[in-house]
Amino acid sequence: MSVLETTSTQDAIALEKKHGAHNYHPLPVVLNRGEGVHVWDVEGKKYYDFLSAYSAVNQGHCHPKIIGAMTNQAQTLTLTSRAFYNDMLGKFEKYATETFGFDKLLPMNTGAEAVETALKLCRKWSYEKKGIPENKAQIIVCENNFHGRTTTIISFSNDQVARKNFGPYTKGFIKIEYDNLTALETALSENPNVAGFLVEPIQGEAGVYVPSESYLKAAKALCEQYNVLFIADEVQTGIARTGRLLATCGNCGCENKHCSGTPEVKPDILILGKALSGGVYPVSGVLANDNIMGVIRPGNHGSTFGGNPIAAAVGIAALDVVKEEQLAQNAYELGELFRKELNAFIPTCNIVNAVRGKGLLNAILINDTEESTTAWDICIALKENGLLAKPTHGNIIRFAPPLVMTEEQLLDCVSIITTTLRAFEC
Ligand SMILES: *Cc1c(COP(=O)(O)O)cnc(C)c1O
Questions:
Q1: What pLDDT shows up at residue 195?
Q2: Which secondary-structure segment (H or E) carries 387?
Q3: Whole-angstrom Cα distance, residue 269 to residue 100?
Q4: How far is 314 from 328, CA to CA, in rounded Å?
Q5: Which conformational region is residue 109 in: left (phi greater than 0), alpha (psi within -120 to 50 degrees), or beta?
Q6: C-alpha radius of gyration, the chain, whole number
Q7: Which residues of the chain fall short of a pLDDT of 70?
Q8: CB-based contact 231:118 (threshold 8 Å)
Q9: Strand 38-41 relative to strand 387-388: parallel, antiparallel, unpaired?
Q10: What is the distance between the alpha carbons of residues 399 and 237, in angstroms, rounded to a whole number?
Q11: CB burial class (10 A; 0-12, 13-18, 19+) of residue 369?
């Protein structure tokens, strides 16, 4: 058998099991095609994708405009390294900085790399601009954060599965409770060497935990008071997912009629990834103004693939699609509808305790313990019924479809979800 011959679900899973490292525990479905909000398995069964590759595929699977930009560029020039200029990167940098309202972009590939970049940038700024003594900088992070999987990032995670036996850990981080301003103020006032505060506007992996309304704004004000950089990790919440171009919506100009127009919180450092690529190619980046980004000089940081011509072409197309198709507005409206429908359903059943989220980043809380397999079992049943989602924890299921969904499709999905949940009534 050729390794590229078509395989059954069972064979494909067996192949991965035998030859691949077991660093994931996927739902038992093997996909081989995607278009818009749908994916198909190797037996031809069609599903709604309610994960969107952890919000990387906001623009929908295989969006023709993004695929077109990628294939065009792939036939012209793919990689130069940053040893030479290429004619696409500057265009992407101009477009991204104008879109998000910053002076400069530093392009990378994955979300974790962009987070690492932001941490390095913050530390260097603190030594050269704030005057913190060398090697003393501290960065405040939140409990239950998810910022990626590198050695430094897992050093300040409190997920034991992600951490255990990967030490020794990187120093220089202070962990405080999320959505707790008193804890932030205490950490800031007790430590003179704080350089930055790294935060997710909504904690996605933790189970779509939405902080209280005023949290981000007040946290930013505290950071300003203590001359500490406010670093927003919008790798998951960014690019229209939460019903606005950014969850922090700093000067985003997204023309979403549901936005108030007033910038809510303008991060000092903004981290983007995932949907910056439309889900076709790894593209991430860090945005900041010159007073911060100016501390990075040749040789300080880099990546062979970061800012390559394909990534630049893809990034431009991915942002174009978000604007042209008004995905922020669609995510806002469908998110309201989704929570309204589920909030009507929840009192009629005893299997779901709550739905929460913003835009099309939502989660339901299953009425069972964190150690139970109920959420997993529900996801298996959802799969049988044509909808793919994944638990974030034992009792939380995230629902994050591509933002190109129509109202009719969303209502169809609500019906699949509620019918499936009914079958799990206690
Ligand atoms: C996914 C994610 C990351 C890491 O991105 P990778 O591309 O998987 O490295 C970082 N931060 C947040 C908030 C994420 O959701």
A1: 98
A2: strand 387-388
A3: 11
A4: 19
A5: alpha
A6: 21
A7: 1-5, 250-263, 426
A8: yes
A9: unpaired
A10: 13
A11: exposed
CB within 8 Å of 139: residues ≥ 6 apart: 119, 122, 123, 156, 172, 173, 174, 194, 195, 196, 197, 198, 231
Output the pLDDT for position 2. Answer: 61
Is any atom of ligand 1 closer than 6 Å to the C-beta of 235?
Answer: yes
Assess contact for 158 and 175: CB atoms under 8 A: yes
Peptide bond into 201 cis (omega under 30): no
CA gap 342, 353 in Å, rounded = 10
Q: Taking a C-beta distance cutoff of 8 angstroms, is the pair 225, 152 a contact?
A: no
In whole angstroms, what is the distance from residue 55 CA to residue 243 CA? 13
What per-residue confidence (pLDDT) applies to 264?
78
SS3 195: strand
Cα(204) to ligand 1 centroid in Å equals: 10
Distance (angstroms) between ligand 1 centre and the Cα of 284 equals 10
Mean pLDDT computed over every residue of the chain: 95
Question: What domains can you pick out in the chain, each with its CATH number?
Answer: 9-59+327-423 (3.90.1150.10), 65-324 (3.40.640.10)
Per-residue pLDDT at 251: 46
Adjacency order of strands within the sheet including 390-393: 352-358, 361-366, 396-399, 390-393
- Tell me if residue 297 falls in helix, strand or coil: coil
The torsion angle over the Cα atoms of residues 412, 417, 418 and 419, rounded to 10 degrees, is: 90
Q: Any catalytic annotation for residue 41?
A: no
Catalytic residue from among 41, 233, 320, 368 = 233
Nearest-atom index, ligand 1, CA of 109 = 7
Residue 18 falls in the annotated catalytic set:
no
Closest of 157, 187, 181, 179 to residue 169, by C-alpha: 157
Confirm or reject: Cβ of 234 under 6 Å from ligand 1: no
pLDDT in tens, 241-263: 999 999 998 545 556 666 655 55
- Examine the residue annotation and report whether 233 is marked as an active-site residue of this protein: yes
Is 148 near ligand 1, meaning CB less than 6 Å away?
A: yes
